[in-house]
Structure formats: structure tokens, C-alpha cells
Design goal:
heterodimer, A: mainly alpha, two-stranded antiparallel sheet, 2 strands, B: two-stranded antiparallel sheet, 28 helices, 5 strands
């Protein structure tokens, strides 16, 4: 299975190289080829999903090195290893990436006509970056993939985007790069701290090893917990290594999420990005931020996370309300959906920093949910833009009449986003809020106000675009009839098979997760247990410091030296 | 698990399955989906009937006496479990991660609610078969109705607050879909969105309430919460700990895991949680100040108004207040009572002057819901619920009658009606029965329930005379009710036709009239004290059934009842008398002219006709500022984006002055190398080579190297 995972990650890259190598391929061939690659990748992801054993806490499908550690020695001298594997958290993000990539290819089906091979090549390259990122068990590998994803997206926006694409792509690139360099610094600091405080020194870049090892190092400064209130302590509260490293890690991830006030690149990038770029950006790239928060900030600097919880929760709540209000003010549908992402990502971070298993579990399932619903919303907006070349809500109305199937998809995705019970958003949002009620009710109460605004802008959008009397931009009414002679739908062509094929799986998932989330949660929960356990108010009995080794199982690896989990109190 | 629980689960699932079938096979079945929906809800009604008989037979066998635990059928299954499963922890400890369960809890209230909901729903389905015929989205309409029925039944059967909340949102959503059924008309969509949003405002309160309860009690199960908060006598166990009042929880098994002390919840928190839950009920049951959505909701088809916006969904708020009754502290109960009192008065006053008779019925619904709330607030739990049941029947009847009238004349404007009695006798007579019931004419169902409410409030006021308003408001409200209802009936059915349409009107087909007759039976008889079941005495049998197994004993008005009955007959006479004097069927009766009165009290009439200016007020105070803030944020954010981009450019420009210094630095070469590699990939991307990007990258690289140096100096120091 380990080979299968590596193959799955690398297959899109191979496809993308082939496409880059043949720039004169006709559009039809290029898109069919890209579709074939994404479909095979999806099939492989499903195979991994089927082989995944939900009860295992640690990563699965990893190579067993000759020395009993995860992964193959890559730069053995420096402890860098080629380690790929999936646990319950990354598994779904991995699968989500594969799925949304299919939607992206279908969304580009008709709209990309120029330089198609390069476009699909970039999409596939991005896929490898994202798949690799979620599967990385090594910090260096993670970081390489993390940065790698920027390049294809940069070109996707810069070459295939709207009128202001250059400004958007440069802003996006610089903004995220600047942040991620600080994150790199933070990650290196973690490695350095671990190296410094192990005896004999252990230089490792393995994420599971670091996660486990950092809990056990004997360094007073590392285990000191100071909070906001401790102003009278001899040192200000932020002068602890965990808080400082948290802040470094925070820089990159907060921009990726994006957390208020680091969100300003997002609307610009979304509005200018082609539909496929938006789907992936909102659906998967934003999750990289929250995933990073979970994997690094919360798992490796728990004391920092605890100390900065008020900051994180405050920024999340502001983001929730600010994003929702900003969405309310938009007249461009795509911009509206972009701002709604700011609001919804705020909910996810709020759930993570409730620092209890209720909120964290909810946040992780919400990452998947948001990827699905927002991906679907952007794909739906793309359908409209392709037909009318406008996204202004004042120019569109009553499209239900013209595109009934599209309207159904759009409404379902909006309702999923608005957390209607029975659809996926509810399964995430409800636990997030309740988790926060347990952690600190003030943030929770403020966040619930976001639910009013969330319903407000989504209903307003539906009301303007889907319902009401039919209204289309003047130039795309009967005038267009001459072009689409075969179409019986007045001006525009009805929803095509590729659009249906791209959206249907997302719709099925919106309902499936909403009705029966158990199979998803069953896999998500086990790896989150040790993370949440770190934040339990009553200190867990200190586990005996065990050397971080790996117990190899037949199909996967248990978490190295996983301490028995005890839940005491809250 | 008893077989009856399966029965009730089936009763919920049947409409749900019907909904799925209608969605999936809608194309193939076409208009026949309507029969699927009707058959499904009919089956649910039969199941509820079986359940009802079985429940009270079991109650009879167990010989109810005070203090005995009531018969309850419970069962649930886990839907979403979060966090690790910890076997040792008690079910309701605050340390436990959230577990969401789909649970049913069938007690006397659920049994009766089921019977009422399925009965009214079946009748409305049958009516809609004919009424909606020819509608372009005929089958879609019935699919939504099925989903609504399933959600509504789940709502009244759920055992925990999570499931209540989910069903609560779903019924609201169905209401949204059905109000906006004719969504080509933007006004209808507006009304639908307004309903959904106003309800969301309340729901947020509800979420806060259940969040606080869960965070402090560690459970969402309603029965457990109720048991924990009240002691055996239904009292709150208030203590003072470290200067703040707390409520000691009763459940002896659950001590605080962290401290080992008996668990308690702050009194203030309990008040906030209670107010939060009540806020949800205020939204759903259209109470002041969130009542504004219900009159607009009349934009939906009339069967929808009858089922959702009169009989069932809007009563869910009252139902929930009764369900979580023990959670409410005295302060909260007083708030509930005053909310109900204010609502019933405001809505009644508006109903007096409306010309659109569907609007009159809508405001009348709001007002009657206020009666139920005030009863609950003063402690008359069974009185409020009794009124819920009787109101469901006669108000559904009134709305279906309205639909029947509309079907004949295609207008809701009363000035264009009149004289319909001779042309639509069934409609006229059944609506007269409903009018007499809602006005509280003795022997009609509404008389008994309204009397019970007045008795409760009178009893309460005699104990606490400073709250005299709580008796005066419903008493005046009852007179107002009789006035506007007889006005409505006289204007539609009495006198001479005032428009050609009215003079040509005729009774519709039997599918339209039979439902009216079916509803007229309980409208008349629901309050009668006849009994075949083991409840005796003068009191209405239905009220006795509702009283059974109450978490906290309702107040017993005792001798006050006779006074209340007198008051009730008195206010009825006043209301009816005024109605007859203004609008009576014969000229001889009409001694007062509504036009003159309206003219004399011009400003007041205008104030009422404009519905107390609530819509205008909310638009000015809530909606406009929200949108203004939103626009301000939208604008600032755009500025911020530009600012950020410009800022980067500015820094770069400053920095590029030193460019020469760093030119030879290896980093620049490295960056240049990467950049060249990047350009080589996309040779069409010539715009990259305008020189700014490498500079940006270099700035970053230099900054990062500096930070690296600083960090290592710190860590390795």
C-alpha cells in the first residue's frame, strides 16, 4: 500500500509533465488526458480509503525504513526522510483534493480554450503538491510541497485569470510566501528545540516523532505555561519558547486560512482566478492553513496554543462576523462566496481553538465540508459566468427558470453552507459551537451571530440570482440564439454533462455527510484524541519518557510511542 | 424498546420516505406524487391513533396517581459521537465530549401532539389535492409538505435538544420553501427570506440556550435536564455559594469530576439559558418582538398557512416552552407571560382593522399564540397546551375556509366580499363554528381552553396583584378576538355581495368541503368533558390528558375558575356585541359605523392599520444599519487590499535603493536562479520580467535570513 500512496501522489505530476512537454496538444486531447489522470488518481484515492484502517491512531501506508522508523532515508545525515503516510485527518483532505480536482477539470472543460495543455498541466502539478502536502510525514517534505503548491496556482491565476490577474497573482504569491517563510522558521525552531533538548541529540524532521518527542523533552522553559493574565510574572507571557514558535508558525498558516486581518489577498485572488483555480484555492488550499494549525501549532506547541487561545478565538470571531458582513455587501457573486469563505474558515479555527475534542472534531469535519460546499459554489458561479460573462447580481435574476438543474445544485450547496440540518455544514458547525460553549461562552455567543448573517447573505444571493422574475444580461438573451441554434433554452446552453458530472459527487457528499457522518468521523476521531487530550484542564499523568520508536504493523504504523490516553475531567 | 416506539418512529419515517420517493420519482409519477404524500400522512395519522389508544390504555392500567412516574416510551440511537469514547464516564457529566443522538421520547404530550399534527396535516393534504390543482409545481409542493410533516413529527417526539434544534431548523426551512412556493413573484421570496431570517434570530438564542445547558450540565437530553434542575417537588434548589446564587443539581449520581463536589449551575446562567431557549420559541411562535414574519408568510399557498403557519409549526414554540418548562426560573416565566400578553394585545389590535381577511387570520394566530404563552408563563402549562390543541383545529379550519372562499372569489379583500352565506353554506357554517370556538362561545372547544387560560392568569394575579396586567391583557384580548372574528364572518358571509365575483361565488368540490367538516368536529367538541378513558370529573378530558405526568404540577385555579368563566362570557358578549353593532348581518343591528369611528380615531386607526410600524422600525433600526456596516466593511476591505498591495510596492521601492549593495550577495543569485527557472516554465508570462517580482523575493529572502540568524542565536544561546 505504501507504493500505492507514492504512486497516487506522483501520478498527477507525471501527467502534468507530459502536458507541459506537449504544448501543442489540441484542447480536447489535453482535457481528456487530464480527466483520465484525475479519474485514475481518484480511483487510487478510493482504494486507499478502502484499505484505511479506522482504528489505527497513527499514519498508515508509510514505508518502513530499514532502521524501524517511518519512511526511507533521504538525507540520512540530517534526519530528513522520504516519509509519506495518511492518518484519519489527512486521509479525507487527500480524498477531497482528488475529488475537487475532477470538478476543476470539468469546470475548465469548456471555458479554457487557449493554452489548454499548460492549464491542465498546472492543475495536475497543483494536485501533486496538495496530495503530497497532506501525505507528508516529514517536515522538510511537507514544506517542499507546501511551497510547491504556490507555483502552479501563481501561474493559474496569472495566466488564466481575469483582467487584474497579474496584480492578484503577485499579491497572492508574495503574501503567502512571506508568511510561509516565517512558518519555515518556526518549523526549524521546533526541530532545533528537540535537537537541543534530547540527550543524546536527536536530529529528526519526522512529524510524528517531533509531535511525540516535544511533549517529553525536559526543559523548564518549554513546559512553562503563562497566560495573558500573567503580566506580573518576571517575564511577559509571550517570552516562552512555545508562544514564540507558535507565532512564527502562525504567520504562514494564518495567511493561508486566511484569518482576519490577513485575508485581504483572498477576495482579489478569487475574483481573478479561473473557476478551477477558485475551486482548489477555496476547497483545498485554505485547508492547508487549518491543517497546519492542527498539525503544528496545536500538536507541537500546545502550551503556546493554550496561551494564545484568546487571540485565536478573537481573530476567528472577528473573521466570522467581518467576513459575513463583507459578504453581505458584495454585488459580485464570486466575491460574495470568497468572503463567505473568510467567515466559514473563522468557524473552523474557532473549533480548533476551543481546545476540546468536541470542537476539534467538528472543525476537522468542517474542513471537509467547507471544501465540498465552497468548491461546489465556485463551480456553480463558474457555470453562470461562462454563460453570461457577468457575476453581478444586479444583472441576473430568476435563473431557476433558465437553468433549473443548476439552480438545484446552487441552492443545495448554499444550504449546506448555511448549515441546514441534514446537510453537511450542520454536522461541523454544531459541534464547533458547542465545543466553544464549553471552552468560553462569550466567543461562542458572538460566533452564533455569524449564523444569522450567514443565512442572510446566502438567502439574499439566492433571492437575487435564483428566484424572482427571469432577468439576463441584455447581450446574452435572444441575441445569442443565432449561435446556439440547437438550444431550446432561449439564450443560453443548458447545463452540460460535464458540469453535471463535476457537481453531482459534491451534491451527493453534501447530503451523505449531512445524513450519515459516521464513516467520516470514525476515521477522523482517533488521531485527534491525543491532540485534544493535551488540553485537558486536569493534567494527565505524565507518561514515562519513551524513546520515539515505531511499532510496525502489517498495514500501517501506530503513532510512535503513543501514550495511553486518559481523559480526566474537561 | 416497546413496539409503540417503533410505531412512532415509523410515523415519522413514512412521510420522510414519501419525500424521498417524491424527489426521486417525481418525473415518473407526475401529479400522482400528491397521492403518495397524502397516503403517507394518512398512514401516520392511523399510526398515531393506534399509539394514542395504546398509550392511554397503558396509563389506565397503571392507574395514575400523584407522584407516580408517568408512562414514557423512550429510545435513541447515536448519530454523531465526537471525541474519544470514554466508557467510565456517566452519561451526563460535563467532561464528556458531545454526542448527538437521534432520540424519541413519547409521553402524553407527544402522543397528543402527534394526533393533532397528523390529523390536521391529513386534512390539509386532502384539501390541497383540490386547491393546488393546476399549479405548475404541484408535485414539488407535496414533496415539501411531506418533508415538513416528517420534521414536525420529529420535533414533537425528540428526546433531546439537539434533535429538537435540527427538526426546528428543518420545519423552518420547509416553511421557507413553501412561503416562497410561487417564487417568480419577488415579494413572495422576500416574505420567505424574512421568515427564515427572523426565525434564525430566535434560533441563535436557542443555540445559546442549549449550548449553555450542555456546557454546564453535560447533556442535551430534555428529561435529564428537567430532572436535574428541579428537585422532587418541582422546586429550584437555590443556594448561595461565595456570594453568588447557584442552583444545586438534583441528579445525585453526577458529581463534578474535577472537584468531587455536587454539581451546580449558576443562577444567572440558568436565567440566560432559559431566555435563550425562549428566544427560539419567540421566533418560531411569532411572539413580540419577532412576530413580524408571520403575517408576511401568508404569501404562501393557503393550505400551507393552515398547516404550518396556524396549526403546527408556529405552535412548536409553545410546545417547546412546555417541554423544557422546568428550566425556566421565575424571572424567565414572568418574561414569557409578559411577552405573551403584549403579543396577544398588539396582534389583536392590528387584526381589528385589516381589510385582507387572511391577514386578520394571521394576526389572530399571533394573538392566540400569545394567549398560550401567557398561560405557560403564569404556570398554567396544561391550559396553554389545551389552547394549542383547540386552536390548531379551529384555526386550521378558518384558514381552509379562507382557502375555500378564495377558491370561489379569488380575493382576500373583505370589502369585495359579503353575502356568501347563501352561496357557500358549508364553508359559512363551518367557519361560523370556528369563529364561535375562537371567540369562546360556551360549549365550543375554544371556550374551555380560553377559560382555562383566564383562570390561570386570574389565579396568578390574585397571588401577585402587582401583575394585574397579566389578567387584563388576556381579558381585553379575548374581547378583541370576538370582535375581529365576528367582524370577519359578518363581512364575508352576511349582508349582500359587494362585488360581481362575490355574487357569482359557489361552493367548491367535495375535496374542498369535506376537510372543513372534518375539522369542524373537533372544533366543536374538543373541550367537552365526556370521557371513555380513566379521567373523570368536570374538567375537559383533553386538559386532563395534558396534565398527566407534568414535570411540575400546573397551578390549580380552584374556585377562581367560576370568576374566570364569568369574565370570559362577559368579554365575549362585549366583543360580539361590538362586532354586531358595526358589521351585523341586518341593518337593524348596525348602530355604529366603522368608517366614522375610523375617522374619529384617525391616528390610532392608521397606527393599527400600519401594524404599529414594526416593519418600518426594524428596517430603520436593524436592517439598514447592518447593511450600512456591511457596505462600510466591504469598502474598507477593498481599500485594505489596495493598501496592502501598495504597501508592498512602497517597501520594495524603498528597499530597491539598497539593491546594489545586495546584488552580489549569494541569496540574490539564488533568487535570480529560481526566478529564471520559473520564467522558463512559462515563456508567455513576460509580464513577470518587469523587475518588481525579483525585488520582492529578495526583500523576503533577506528578511528571512535575518530572522533565521536571530532565532538561532536565541535557541542556541
Amino acid at each position: 500500500m505504501a507504493f500505492l500512496l507514492v504512486f497516487t501522489v506522483l501520478l498527477p505530476l507525471v501527467g502534468s509533465l507530459i502536458l507541459f512537454g506537449s504544448p501543442h496538444l489540441p484542447t480536447r486531447t489535453a482535457r481528456s488526458f487530464a480527466l483520465a489522470i484525475t479519474l485514475v488518481t481518484m480511483a487510487l484515492s478510493l482504494a486507499l480509503l478502502a484499505a484505511f484502517r479506522p482504528e489505527v491512531v497513527g499514519a498508515q501506508f508509510a514505508f518502513a525504513g530499514s532502521d524501524g522508523k517511518i519512511g526511507l532515508g533521504w538525507l540520512p545525515r540530517y534526519g530528513v526522510r522520504f516519509a509519506l503516510g495518511l492518518d484519519g485527518i489527512s486521509l479525507w483532505l487527500f480524498a477531497l483534493t482528488s475529488l475537487l480536482m475532477i470538478t476543476s477539470v470539468f469546470a475548465s472543460w469548456e471555458s479554457v480554450t487557449e493554452r489548454a495543455p499548460a492549464h491542465y498541466g498546472l492543475l495536475l502539478a497543483l494536485q501533486t503538491g496538495l496530495l503530497g502536502l497532506f501525505a507528508s510525514l516529514d517536515v522538510v517534505l511537507f514544506y517542499i510541497f507546501f511551497e510547491f503548491t504556490l507555483i502552479p496556482l501563481f501561474f493559474l491565476i496569472g495566466l488564466y485569470g481575469g483582467p487584474e490577474r497579474r496584480r492578484a497573482s503577485v499579491t497572492f504569491f508574495l503574501y503567502t510566501l512571506a508568511g510561509s517563510l516565517l512558518t519555515l522558521l518556526g518549523v526549524i525552531a521546533l526541530v532545533a528545540v528537540y535537537y537541543q533538548h534530547t540527550n543524546p541529540h536527536i536530529l529528526t524532521f519526522s512529524i510524528p516523532e517531533l509531535t511525540e518527542g516535544l511533549k517529553q523533552i525536559q526543559w523548564d522553559e518549554w513546559t512553562t505555561a503563562r497566560t495573558w493574565g500573567d503580566w506580573k510574572a518576571d517575564k511577559p507571557f509571550w517570552m516562552t519558547p512555545q508562544v514564540l514558535i507558535f507565532m512564527l508558525l502562525f504567520a504562514g498558516f494564518a495567511i493561508k486560512v486566511p484569518l482576519f486581518p490577513f485575508h485581504t489577498w483572498l477576495p482579489l485572488a478569487h475574483v481573478e482566478a479561473p473557476t478551477a483555480g477558485s475551486i482548489l484555492l477555496a476547497g483545498v488550499m485554505l485547508k492547508v492553513g487549518s491543517y497546519g494549525f492542527l498539525r503544528f501549532n496545536m500538536a507541537m506547541t500546545p502550551i503556546g496554543a493554550q496561551a494564545l487561545m484568546p487571540l485565536m478565538a478573537t481573530l476567528s470571531v472577528i473573521g466570522i462576523l467581518y467576513g459575513a458582513l463583507a459578504a453581505l455587501a458584495q454585488t459580485d457573486v464570486k466575491r460574495l462566496v470568497a468572503y463567505s469563505s473568510v467567515s466559514h474558515m473563522g468557524f473552523i479555527i474557532l473549533g480548533l481553538f476551543s481546545l476540546n475534542s468536541t470542537g476539534i472534531d467538528g472543525a476537522v469535519i468542517q474542513m471537509i465540508n467547507h471544501g465540498i460546499t465552497t468548491g461546489a459554489l465556485f463551480a456553480c458561479v463558474g457555470v453562470i459566468y461562462e454563460r453570461y460573462h457577468t457575476r453581478e447580481m444586479s444583472e441576473l435574476s430568476g435563473l431557476w427558470k433558465r437553468l433549473p438543474l443548476w439552480a438545484f445544485f446552487f441552492i443545495l450547496a448554499s444550504l449546506g453552507s448555511a448549515a441546514l440540518p441534514g446537510l453537511n455544514g450542520f454536522v461541523g458547525e454544531f459541534p464547533i459551537l458547542l465545543g466553544m460553549f464549553r471552552a468560553d461562552r462569550i466567543y461562542a455567543i458572538l460566533a452564533t451571530l455569524g449564523m444569522i448573517l450567514g443565512a442572510y447573505y446566502l438567502l439574499l444571493m439566492l433571492q437575487k440570482v435564483v428566484f424572482g422574475p427571469l432577468k439576463e444580461p441584455a447581450s446574452h438573451g435572444h441575441h445569442h440564439d443565432a449561435h446556439d441554434a440547437g438550444s431550446s433554452h432561449g439564450g443560453v446552453r443548458p447545463v452540460g454533462w460535464h458540469e453535471i458530472a463535476g457537481l453531482t459527487p459534491l451534491m451527493v457528499l453534501i447530503v451523505l455527510i449531512g445524513v450519515y457522518p459516521k464513516p467520516f468521523l470514525d476515521r477522523i476521531k482517533p488521531p485527534l484524541v491525543p491532540i485534544a487530550a493535551q488540553f485537558d484542564r486536569a493534567p494527565a499523568p505524565a507518561p514515562a519518557p519513551t524513546p520515539a520508536t515505531v511499532a510496525a504493523g502489517p498495514g500501517g504504523f501506530a503513532a510512535p510511542g503513543a501514550a495511553p490516553i486518559t481523559i480526566i475531567g474537561d | 424498546m416497546t413496539w409503540q416506539l417503533g410505531l412512532y418512529a415509523t410515523a415519522i419515517l413514512v412521510p420522510l420516505i414519501a419525500f424521498v420517493v417524491q424527489l426521486a420519482a417525481g418525473r415518473r409519477l407526475g401529479h400522482r406524487t400528491a397521492y403518495v404524500a397524502t397516503a403517507a400522512i394518512g398512514l401516520s395519522f392511523v399510526l398515531s391513533l393506534v399509539g394514542f389508544v395504546s398509550y392511554f390504555a397503558e396509563v389506565a392500567r397503571s392507574r395514575p396517581h400523584h407522584g407516580a412516574s408517568p408512562v414514557v416510551w423512550r429510545g435513541d440511537l447515536s448519530w454523531v459521537g465526537l471525541g474519544p469514547s470514554v466508557p467510565g464516564l456517566p452519561a451526563s457529566s460535563p467532561g464528556r465530549p458531545l454526542e448527538l443522538r437521534l432520540g424519541l421520547d413519547v409521553d402524553n404530550l407527544t402522543v397528543l401532539m402527534f394526533l393533532m399534527v397528523t390529523f390536521v396535516a391529513t386534512v390539509v393534504h386532502v384539501f390541497a389535492l383540490a386547491y393546488m390543482r393546476g399549479d405548475p409545481r404541484y408535485s414539488r409542493f407535496f414533496a415539501y409538505l411531506s418533508l415538513f410533516c416528517a420534521s414536525m413529527l420529529a420535533l414533537v417526539a425528540s428526546s433531546n435538544l439537539f434533535f429538537v434544534f435540527a427538526a426546528w431548523e428543518l420545519v423552518g426551512f420547509c416553511s421557507y420553501l413553501l412561503i416562497g412556493h410561487w417564487h417568480e413573484e419577488i415579494a413572495n421570496v422576500d416574505a420567505a427570506s424574512k421568515a427564515f431570517l427572523v426565525n434564525r434570530v430566535g434560533d441563535v438564542g436557542m443555540l445559546v440556550g442549549l449550548g449553555l445547558l450542555w456546557a454546564n450540565l453535560g447533556t442535551l437530553d430534555i428529561r435529564t435536564i428537567n430532572d436535574q434542575i428541579r428537585d422532587g417537588d418541582g422546586q429550584l434548589n437555590v443556594a448561595t455559594v461565595e456570594g453568588s446564587s447557584v442552583v444545586e443539581l438534583r441528579n445525585p449520581g453526577a458529581v463534578d469530576i474535577a472537584t468531587g463536589l455536587p454539581r451546580r449551575i449558576g443562577y444567572g446562567l440558568l436565567v440566560v439559558a432559559g431566555l435563550g431557549l425562549f428566544a427560539g420559541c419567540v421566533g418560531k411562535s411569532a411572539q413580540f418582538p419577532l412576530h413580524v414574519w408571520l403575517p408576511d408568510a401568508m404569501a404562501g399557498p393557503t393550505p400551507v398557512s393552515a398547516l404550518i403557519h396556524a396549526a403546527t409549526m408556529v405552535a412548536a414554540g409553545v410546545y417547546l416552552v412546555a417541554r423544557v418548562f422546568p428550566v425556566f426560573t421565575p424571572e424567565v416565566l414572568l418574561t414569557i407571560a409578559y411577552t405573551g400578553g403584549i403579543t396577544l394585545f398588539i396582534a389583536g389590535s392590528i387584526a381589528m382593522v385589516q381589510a385582507d381577511f387572511k391577514k386578520v387570520l394571521a394576526y389572530s394566530t399571533v394573538s392566540q399564540l400569545g394567549f398560550m404563552m401567557i398561560a405557560l408563563g403564569v404556570g398554567g402549562r396544561s391550559a396553554g397546551l389545551f389552547h394549542l390543541m383547540t386552536h390548531a383545529c379551529f384555526k386550521a379550519l378558518l384558514f381552509l375556509g379562507a382557502g375555500s372562499v378564495y377558491h370561489a372569489v379569488h380575493t382576500y379583500e373583505m370589502p369585495a366580499l359579503g353575502g356568501l352565506y347563501r352561496r357557500m353554506r358549508t364553508t359559512a357554517l363551518t367557519m361560523l363554528a370556528a369563529t364561535m370556538a375562537i371567540s369562546g362561545v360556551p360549549l365550543f372547544s375554544g371556550f374551555y381552553s380560553k377559560d382555562a387560560i383566564l383562570a390561570s392568569t386570574l389565579h396568578f394575579v390574585m397571588g401577585q396583584p402587582e401583575h394585574i396586567l397579566l389578567f387584563l391583557l388576556p381579558a381585553v384580548g379575548a374581547a378583541i378576538t370576538a370582535f375581529y372574528m365576528f367582524r370577519l364572518w359578518f363581512l364575508i358571509f352576511a349582508g349582500q355581495p359587494r362585488s360581481p365575483a362575490a355574487s357569482r361565488a359557489s361552493e367548491g368540490e367535495r375535496l374542498l368541503t369535506w376537510p372543513l367538516i372534518a375539522l369542524a368536529v373537533p372544533t366543536v367538541a374538543l373541550g367537552w368533558p365526556v370521557t371513555i378513558l380513566p379521567f373523570f370529573g368536570f374538567e375537559p378530558i383533553l386538559e386532563r390528558m395534558l396534565e398527566y405526568g407534568e414535570p411540575i404540577e400546573s397551578i390549580d385555579p380552584g374556585g377562581v375558575q367560576w370568576w374566570a368563566m364569568g369574565a370570559s362570557v362577559l368579554v365575549l358578549s362585549v366583543g360580539f356585541g361590538l362586532g354586531a353593532l358595526y358589521y351585523g348581518p341586518w341593518i337593524a343591528w348596525r348602530r355604529l359605523d366603522p368608517k366614522k369611528t375610523a375617522h374619529r380615531f384617525g391616528p390610532i386607526h392608521e397606527f393599527l392599520a400600519r401594524k404599529w410600524y414594526f416593519d418600518e422600525l426594524y428596517r430603520a433600526v436593524l436592517v439598514a444599519p447592518t447593511l450600512a456596516i456591511a457596505r462600510a466593511i466591504g469598502w474598507t476591505d477593498r481599500r485594505a487590499i489596495d493598501g496592502a498591495v501598495d504597501g508592498v510596492a512602497w517597501i520594495t521601492e524603498r528597499f530597491s535603493r539598497f539593491e546594489g549593495v545586495f546584488d552580489r550577495v549569494a541569496i540574490d543569485r539564488l533568487v535570480g536562479l529560481i526566478a529564471r527557472g520559473v520564467y522558463a516554465t512559462g515563456d508567455r508570462a513576460r509580464w513577470l520580467q518587469n523587475g518588481s517580482l525579483p525585488t520582492y523575493l529578495m526583500v523576503l529572502a533577506v528578511a528571512v535570513v535575518g530572522l533565521f540568524a536571530a532565532m538561532f542565536a536565541w535557541i542556541l544561546a
